[in-house]
TrEMBL record:
Component of the Arp2/3 complex composed of ARP2, ARP3, ARPC1/p41-ARC, ARPC2/p34-ARC, ARPC3/p21-ARC, ARPC4/p20-ARC and ARPC5/p16-ARC. Belongs to the WD repeat ARPC1 family. It is found in: Cytoplasm, Cytoskeleton. Keywords: Actin-binding, Cytoplasm, Cytoskeleton, Repeat, WD repeat. It comes from Spinacia oleracea. The keyword Cytoplasm applies. The keyword tRNA processing does not apply. The lineage of its organism: Eukaryota, Viridiplantae, Streptophyta, Embryophyta, Tracheophyta. This is Actin-related protein 2/3 complex subunit. Pfam families: WD40. GO terms for molecular function: actin filament binding.
């Protein structure tokens, strides 16, 4: 499993998203703008600049069915962008927030999107046909701190969130007139909007990225204490596992399959986690490595390598050149990875490629065709 391509788009990237046909990419270069690039003969050409926000754009998602882009920013606003006549036209979404909007994601049916914020609030936004505008319903008084990540269950109703209060929570987002009570939604359609299904207290530190498995049977989220948590049978009697690793904390996760998860974060290199036949999860290796990092490295070398990754490219490169970082050779990213996005799917709808972006301003495309992980896909 190796990096297919590496592209430098900015000094720093807070988030990125792909167009439905993967021919264009939208990146947030840690400014109030969004830049859209199009691929042409192995080169990327900037074709649009989206300008509406007043402060840093920190979240973006591109719907695969409707070809709409949603953005959120520290200016407490959200915009839905529609392409009309070759130009992107923005529609303001009233979020009613008094703190920054931090993350956003379209629901699977793309009739709603969720926004996490620094106001301890989650906004569930949907389009109101009668008034021809986007409105939001708020899930309040559930979080004790900023909402750092949101993830939709495949049933389009349940929403998982993580927060800097260390908790992972699952809520119902059923909205009458928007959602339907059918067999696909199951018992989730019998819940009320904003009802908390479960609160997970596995982490004793900030919690960041959260994702559901393709079937929705497993939930994974990460803590700032270098741990990743897996929860099966989310409900009254969940089954939870905690996997600790010796490296720097993760920021985001992604399910490649029911038995395999990719985690990215401060270690600048994606990490592979997999479940065995009994359902026990464990760390497998870093991408591009056949084995985990050797345990014979000296503690001083590990600490200096970690500080290099935390404090910037120059120190990081020095640590690598001195051989202090045991798994740094061939690393595609040079700073913290903050975002991971699925890119391509095969005939059986399994993900074959994914992309990562980070504070080094790079977007890296990874290939999942490695034979030594084929059993987990």
């Amino acid at each position: 499993m190796t990096a297919v391509s590496v592209h430098k788009f900015a000094q720093c990237i807070t988030s990125h998203a792909w167009s439905p046909d993967n021919s264009m990419i939208a990146v947030c270069p840690n400014t109030e703008e969004v830049h859209i690039y199009q691929s042409s003969e192995d080169k990327w050409e900037k074709i649009h600049v989206l300008q509406k926000h007043d402060q840093v754009v920190c979240g973006i998602d591109w719907s695969s069915k409707m070809n709409k882009i949603v953005t959120v920013s520290h200016d407490r606003n959200s915009y839905v962008w529609n392409q009309e006549g070759g130009e992107w036209v923005a529609t303001l979404v009233i979020l009613r927030l008094n703190r920054a909007a931090l993350c956003v994601q379209w629901s699977p049916k793309e009739n709603k999107f969720a926004v996490g914020s620094g106001a301890k609030t989650v906004c569930i936004c949907y389009y109101e046909q009668e008034n021809n505008w986007w409105v939001s319903k708020l899930i309040r008084k559930k979080h004790n701190s900023s909402v750092t990540s949101v993830a939709w269950h495949p049933n389009n109703i349940l929403l998982a969130t993580t927060s800097t209060d260390g908790k992972c929570r699952v809520f119902s987002t059923f909205i009458k007139g928007v959602d339907t009570r059918d067999s696909e939604a199951g018992s989730a359609s019998d819940t009320k909007f904003g009802e908390q299904i479960i609160q997970l207290d596995l982490s004793y530190s900030w919690a960041f990225g959260v994702k559901w498995s393709p079937s929705g049977n497993t939930l994974a989220y990460v803590g700032h204490n270098s741990m990743i948590y897996f929860v099966d049978d989310v409900g009254p009697s969940p089954l939870a596992q905690s996997v600790a690793f010796r490296d720097l904390p993760l920021r985001d996760v992604f399910f490649v399959s029911e038995k395999m998860v990719i985690g990215v974060g401060f270690d600048c290199n994606p990490m592979v986690f997999a479940a065995d036949e009994s359902g026990l999860w464990s760390f497998i290796r870093f991408l591009g490595q056949k084995q985990t990092a050797p345990t014979s490295a000296r503690a001083g070398s590990q600490i200096s390598g970690a500080f290099g990754k935390l404090y910037g490219q120059s120190k990081y490169n020095n640590a690598s050149d001195n051989g202090n970082d045991s798994h740094s050779s061939g690393r595609a990213h040079e700073n913290c990875i903050t975002c991971i996005v699925p890119l391509k799917k095969g005939r059986d709808s399994k993900v074959t490629h994914f992309s990562t972006s980070g504070l080094d301003g790079k977007v890296v495309i990874w290939d999942l065709g490695s034979q030594d992980i084929a059993d987990y896909l």
